[in-house]
Every structure is written in structure tokens, then in C-alpha cells.
From TrEMBL:
GO biological process, one term: protein secretion by the type II secretion system
Domain of life according to the entry: Bacteria
InterPro entries found in the cross-reference section: Competence_ComEA_HhH, Endo/Exo/Phosphatase_dom_1, RuvA_2-like
Regions crossing the membrane: none
Keyword Signal carried by entry: yes
Protein name: Competence protein ComEA helix-hairpin-helix region
Length: 91
């Protein structure tokens, strides 16, 4: 009887990860047209201040010509770019 309880308890404790939902996938975002709120909501690791820096950079220098140019924005490095590269659009 104890063994059965132990097995049932083990199954209950281990089953939630089996039924957990996948994390939400971010939608593609155009860094040349999106506002700061959209950038902040869409890009991983980008809060409101980094999102505003992206918009300010774009306003000062024109549209981004490549995804890699995003690293010219203060606070955006290679690792942050790598996390988001698949969802960044230029057009």
C-alpha cells in the first residue's frame, strides 16, 4: 500500500511539466516602423529605455539597413541581438 501511494505521489509531482504549455513565441517586429512600446513588448531583454533608444537612433540616423546595425544603439549588444534576430524585420 505504501508503495502505491509513493508511486501516485511521484506521478502527481512529475506530471505538471509534462502538461506545461510552450512559452509564447514573439511575433516578428519591424525595427524601422515599430514604436517604443511595441519594441519593448516584442523584443526579449528590451525594456522601455532600450526601446526608446532604438527609436531615437532611428530618428537620428534613418532606418536600419541591417539587423546588425542595431548593435550601434547603446545597450544593445551581440547577445541581445542573437536572442531576437529571428523576429527582427527591416521591412
Amino acid at each position: 500500500m505504501r508503495l502505491i501511494r509513493y508511486i501516485c505521489l511521484s506521478l502527481c509531482l512529475l506530471s505538471p511539466p509534462l502538461f506545461a504549455e510552450d512559452p509564447p513565441v514573439s511575433s516578428p517586429v519591424n525595427i524601422n516602423t515599430a514604436d517604443a512600446a511595441t519594441l519593448s513588448a516584442s523584443l526579449k531583454g528590451v525594456g522601455s529605455s532600450k526601446a526608446q533608444a532604438i527609436v531615437t537612433y532611428r530618428d537620428n540616423y534613418g532606418p536600419f539597413k541591417s539587423v546588425e546595425e542595431l548593435t550601434a544603439v547603446r545597450g544593445i549588444g551581440d547577445s541581445l541581438l542573437a536572442k531576437n534576430k529571428d523576429i527582427i524585420l527591416l521591412e
